[in-house]
């Protein structure tokens, strides 16, 4: 079954997210939240004068992905609230000094999204869950 799921994953990403994430909000993080965070990091680092080549190295993505993040062609589905964007702005200044801290910075931001209840909102939205979710942290 895992092999079949992986094959479907490449054919129709939305199908796999809807299939798996009804019980796994981590799928929402992987498909929607983390790309949105990377997008904001790319924009902030660009604003701070970091080259797109260096941004791609920091974020661990291709140069093309950085270009798409900056031009709003990728990670459009999740709109992060201003509070999270401000957190990313502060983290971007840390990343400019210490680029190897990206994993820790992303983990801190995801933690804030989880405890704020935003992950549950995204989970409900992308998995069409009505009423109270019994999976997410509320």
Describe what you observe in this structure.
With 138 residues, the protein is mainly α. The protein has a domain at 23-112. It has eight helices and no strands. The chain has helices spanning 2-11, 13-20, 25-47, 52-59, 63-70, 82-97, 102-116, 118-127. Helix 1 (2-11) crosses helix 2 and helix 3 (25-47) crosses helix 8 (118-127). The longest helix is centred in the first third of the chain and has 23 residues, at 25-47.
Note the total helix count. 8
Please identify the oligomeric state.
single chain
> How many DSSP E strands?
0
> How far do the termini sit from each other?
31 Å
Percent in strands: under 5%
What does this entry show, briefly?
The protein has eight helices and no strands.
Describe how the helices and strands are arranged:
Blueprint: H1 2-11, H2 13-20, H3 25-47, H4 52-59, H5 63-70, H6 82-97, H7 102-116, H8 118-127
Helix pairs in contact: 1-2, 3-4, 3-6, 3-8, 4-5, 6-7
Q: Which key terms come to mind for this protein?
A:
138 residues; mainly alpha; 8 helices; 71% helix; elongated; disordered N terminus
């Amino acid at each position: 079954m895992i092999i079949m799921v992986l094959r479907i994953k490449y054919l129709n990403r939305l199908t796999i997210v809807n299939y798996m994430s009804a019980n796994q909000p981590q799928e929402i993080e992987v498909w929607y939240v983390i790309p949105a965070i990377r997008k904001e990091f790319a924009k902030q680092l660009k604003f701070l004068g970091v080259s797109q080549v260096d941004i791609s190295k920091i974020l661990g993505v291709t140069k093309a992905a950085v270009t798409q993040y900056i031009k709003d062609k990728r990670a459009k589905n999740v709109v992060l609230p201003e509070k999270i964007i401000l957190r990313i702005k502060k983290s971007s200044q840390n990343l400019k000094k210490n680029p190897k801290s990206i994993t820790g910075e992303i983990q801190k931001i995801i933690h804030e999204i989880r405890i704020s209840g935003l992950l549950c909102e995204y989970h409900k939205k992308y998995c069409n869950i009505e009423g109270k979710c019994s999976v997410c942290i509320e």
